[in-house]
Amino acid sequence: MTSVSSTRIRILDGETVNQIAAGEVVERPASIVKELIENAIDAGAAQITVEISSSRKEVSRIRIIDDGHGIPAGEVPLAFLPHATSKIQTAEDLNTCRTLGFRGEALASIAAIAYVTMVTRPQGEEAGTRVIISGGEVLEQGAIGAPVGTTLTIEEIFFTTPARRKFLKSLATELSRLSSVIEVFCLFYPEITFRYLLNGQEKITSHGTRTLGEVLRALRPDEAVQMLSIKGEDHGISLEGYISHPELIKQNTQRILIAVNGRMIVSSRISGAIRGGYGTLIPSYSFPVAVLVITLDPARVDANIHPTKREIRISDESEFLKFITSTVKETLQRNDLSHSVSVTERSELIQSPDTQMSDSVSSEYHVRMSPLPGVHEASLAGYRTTARQLRQSRLQMEPADSAGEPRFPSLTYIGQVAATYLLASNEAGDLILIDQHAAHERVRYDQLKREQREGTLSQELLVPVVLSFSPSEVHLLTELKSDLEEEGFHIEPFGKDTWCVRGVPVVLGRSEDPEAIKEIISGILTGGQESRMHESVSRLVACRGAVKAGVILTPEQGEEIISQLSYTAEPYTCPHGRPTIVSFSRVKLEELFRRR
Ligand code: ADP
Ligand code: MG
């Protein structure tokens, strides 16, 4: 990923400078550290040490020590001049540039705002050079004994720019940004040994002989167990790294780490493409955690669009993004995504002996003896409704799926809990709980999607249903009529405030009553103006037609739901991203009963 640049440092000509995205790169301690680590990597360092000292309120000193190729004595003062770089000579070199730096700005900007000491010695020179620069002026320069490599010490940070100093966040925030910068370098450069010390205390060490996966496990052991490895290749693009199990999600994209050709970047479009691969596996407005190493022809990548080089442009981007989405999707489909009960949740499952003895618990037992709230008594009508719902999803599954493989091995059905959860076990002896509504909802949703793809969307009702709507609903109906038609509803004005429904989506079934049709259409109308109408309609229809929670099922019906679920593409969550399957592994059961 890196290439060692050993050409001379020179000042870029005006024309080249004009073609390079200009702007401030040193906003805070973390950005200084980022620029200096990049320089060390560009210098071919195998070992990079970051030492940070802080006062009570702020970062007081940054020191970066590398064992890279150093700077020849004669070129040291040049390194601190604006637009001085050894990495490119002309704007054309930008197309083939494989180094992290190329603007020749970082050292100049840092020297302008702080007190900087550099000690550097290249291989082959007998002595090193020490230079002290403050506020952009060289205060001292001379020969000094030094190991091969470069050490930069930055003190009195932002002393020339008190305004910027004021904009810094609390010490804790600045330090956390700083350590995440270092963490990201550890991940994307597992072959380099990084050490990070804060006030003399070792905070992060990566041993430089690791793979990305090993670094991930070392840095974030808790998260690493929830990460799935991903790998793909297509048309000269290669993608490698880790994406999170749908259980591990965040509210923003901050934990999606991406390196393109060794350069860490931030791209809402790439993050969006990764998110897209999760589809309904995670709730809307949530994002997975990911660490992705992407490699492609450098000629396709333009890093010169933002001064911090954090953004890039990629040619043929939509094809590239599609590849990412499909690779993420395939990876998720290959893995067992059932939600497992982690050992940390165990404490909630074990009641402490003293609470078990107390009266409050015995009265609780009493309450539990009576039917749970929301549980409907088993009745013939209830049985018939369930039977019809299951028959609909069964019939419509068969043609497409009888040839397909189930997504999980068959389970032994045990029974139903709280008229809501199906209890089962697998061959390995794990205990499996399935939410009957969420599971059937997933089945219906998949079916609906398939029908939408195949175009067998709508079915005529034997007897058209006439519904009345409020004036505001009528207004929306007129507006959304064609959208509704795309979803499978054939609906037309019938009289004042009444509309006639002649066709409904196939998944709703023929015997659907007017109440239900009205409920779904009204639901669409209230949520219908959002851009993802298609999606919300599918979810609504899937939900409406699914077996409800609180309905008592026969063993055959329970088995049927599990079997239908096993043939869906993404059985582990419902279309809203909630889990359908929770498993207690046999090992965990043994732990719970202290058999281990
Ligand atoms: P850029 O990295 O864009 O070239 P910088 O201002 O960061 O610009 O650095 C200027 C030059 O100083 C680099 O091109 C490189 O030749 C030299 N340099 C900076 N840091 C180091 C280092 N740690 N080891 C060797 N050379 C360095
Ligand atoms: Mg640089």
Break the fold down into its secondary structure elements and pairings.
Layout: E1 10-11, H1 14-18, H2 29-42, E2 47-54, E3 59-66, H3 76-79, E4 84-85, H4 106-113, E5 115-121, E6 128-134, E7 137-144, E8 149-155, H5 162-167, H6 171-188, E9 193-198, E10 201-207, H7 212-219, H8 221-224, E11 227-234, E12 237-244, E13 249-250, E14 256-260, E15 263-265, H9 268-278, E16 287-288, E17 290-295, E18 301-302, E19 313-314, H10 317-334, E20 339-340, H11 346-349, H12 353-357, H13 359-369, H14 380-401, E21 412-417, E22 421-425, E23 431-435, H15 436-454, E24 458-468, H16 471-487, E25 490-495, E26 498-505, H17 514-527, H18 533-544, H19 555-566, E27 581-584, H20 586-592
Helix pairs in contact: 2-6, 6-7, 9-10, 14-15, 14-19, 15-18, 15-19, 17-18
Give a written overview of the molecule:
By secondary structure, the protein is α+β, with helices and mostly antiparallel strands. It folds into three domains: 14-208, 2-Layer Sandwich (Heat Shock Protein 90), CATH 3.30.565; 220-333, Ribosomal Protein S5, domain 2; 337-351 and 378-596, Ribosomal Protein S8, Chain: A, domain 1, CATH 3.30.1370. Helices cover 37% and strands 25% of the residues. An eight-stranded mixed beta sheet has the order 7-6-5-8-3-2-9-10. Strands 11-12-17-14-15 form a five-stranded mixed beta sheet, sandwiched between helices. α6 (171-188) runs antiparallel to α7 (212-219). It is elongated and about 95 Å long. The two termini are 46 Å apart. Mean pLDDT is 83; it is low at 1-5 and 343-373. Adenosine-5'-diphosphate is lined by residues 9, 35, 39-40, 43, 66, 68-71, 79, 84-87, 101-108, 150.
